[in-house]
Amino acid sequence: MFPPIEPHAVGHLARPDGQALYWETSGNPRGEPALHLHGGPGAGLLTGHRRRFDPDRYRLVALDQRGCGRSRPWVTEPGGLDGYDLEAMLADLEAVREHLEIERWLVTGVSWGTTLALAYAQAHPDRVTGLIAMCVTTTSAAEVDWMIEGVGRFFPEAWATFEAAGKRRPGEPLVEAYHRHITHPSALIRGEAAEAWCAWEDVHVSLDPRRRPTPAYADPDFRAIFATSVIHTFRHAAFLDEGALLRGVPRIAHLPATLIHGRLDISSPIETAYQLHRAWPGSRLVVIESEGHGGEVMVNAMCDAVAAFRERG
What we know:
CATH superfamily of the largest domain: Alpha/Beta hydrolase fold, catalytic domain
Number of strands: 8
Radius of gyration: 19 Å
Low-confidence stretches: none
Structural class: alpha/beta
Order of helices and strands: EEEEHEHEHHHHHHEHEH
Number of helices: 10
Helix content: 25-40%
CATH architecture of the largest domain: 3-Layer(aba) Sandwich
Largest sheet: 8 strands, mixed
């Protein structure tokens, strides 16, 4: 990890549908272009991502994805969910690339950001020099069902509370019930749904007993933005046909990639990363035996992957 790094340029990019995307660049303005895609969706940018890239060698681009962080409108504001889908997100990334006059870039992502990175690379393989993905997901319907329904087998007490708060109708998938509540006209009902959803997120993301509750979930605005973004995206399985990203690997098979995943990731089991690796001749799978959905060892592995990519030229 490098010392704390501040961006040297920031801005908001206006999109045709009324979105204003916050973007920033840090590191060397003449360095190797790289893109960081945050998780969630809806989590917004933190600051730790900048420290994973050598500021002398990389020109790092990051953005608050539409609907969250410093981008506007939020998904919780009027019109915030209009046009909120994968196609729009991919167009956002291309717009930022063109705005910053970048021809090709290394694409990196964490958790949901890996789904977005894979989809972007498959849509624009000629604009990508390589991929580095940590906590690998494709946000398929099967992955979503496991995260919301299946993983409850390991946390039955917390899942019972989560299910009860969803107040689902007979035969209704839990994600549909939560979508009804998170988009309800009543602010009270939306708030209760967001609080219950974020509480469940804290339960299933890791088996690490040292893990503490996510501090950002204490902010009602953050809870609402995060839960609305995730529930809407999960309900639509990332707006993709089932298995589309795995089937699309041949479009990016020539690209170098490092896939980093925790063996103890019960939220997003390693099976997805393994399947991608087997289908991707240019990929390397790094398994962190001691961690789940993120962790210090995993971050260090990502730093190593970023440094190795630059050394390869």
